[in-house]
Amino acid sequence: MSVKNNNAEINDIVAPVCETGEVHKDLIASVCADMPDIDILYDLAELYRIFADSTRIRILYVLFEKEVCVCDIASILDMTVSAVSHQLRVLRSAHLVRFRREGKTCYYSLADDHVKTIIGQGIEHITEG
């Protein structure tokens, strides 16, 4: 590959191909048969978009440890109750957290073990050496 100075022209780019130059029809058919519907893949991308916010990850990690009320989450993360409540609404709409009411206080927890697994495996992945 060659690149000209300031023009950023790229020459001689060749896409890698198989030795035969043909597609692998059996492989393609197998992958297509197992591929989820596009709407499911869209929803999966949206789920990961929710996880892409560090504030929401911090909240999820607090809830990874135990059930907590909004004011305690705000205190732990040094945030306002309003900011935490906003993020909890996003997490609730994505079915990642649930709450129970005790009087006027709402206690939040992870929605299910799947969420705990996602967080746990993510942390394990980034901390393994």
How is the topology of this model organized?
Layout: E1 2-3, E2 10-11, H1 25-34, H2 38-51, H3 54-65, E3 68-69, H4 70-77, H5 81-93, E4 97-102, E5 105-110, H6 113-127
Antiparallel strand pairs: 1-2, 3-5, 4-5
Structural commentary:
There is one protein chain. The chain has 129 residues and is an alpha+beta fold. The strands form two sheets. The protein has a three-stranded antiparallel sheet with strand order 3-5-4. Strand 1 and strand 2 form a beta hairpin. Helix 4 crosses helix 5. It is elongated and about 70 Å long.
Short description:
The radius of gyration is 23 Å and the shape is elongated. The chain has 129 residues and is an alpha+beta fold. It has a three-stranded antiparallel sheet.
The total count of helices amounts to 6
Mean pLDDT: 87
Largest sheet: 3 strands, antiparallel
Spatial order of strands in the largest sheet: 3-5-4
Percentage of residues in helical conformation: 55-70%
What share of residues are in beta strands? 5-15%
Structural class: alpha+beta
| N- and C-termini, Cα separation | 34 Å
What oligomeric state do these chains adopt?
single chain
Contiguous runs where pLDDT drops below 50 for at least 5 residues: 1-10
Radius of gyration from the alpha-carbon trace, in angstroms: 23 Å
Q: Output the helix-strand order.
A: EEHHHEHHEEH
E-strand count: 5
Overall 3D shape? elongated
Features:
129 residues; alpha+beta; three-stranded antiparallel sheet; two-stranded antiparallel ribbon; 6 helices; 14% strand; elongated
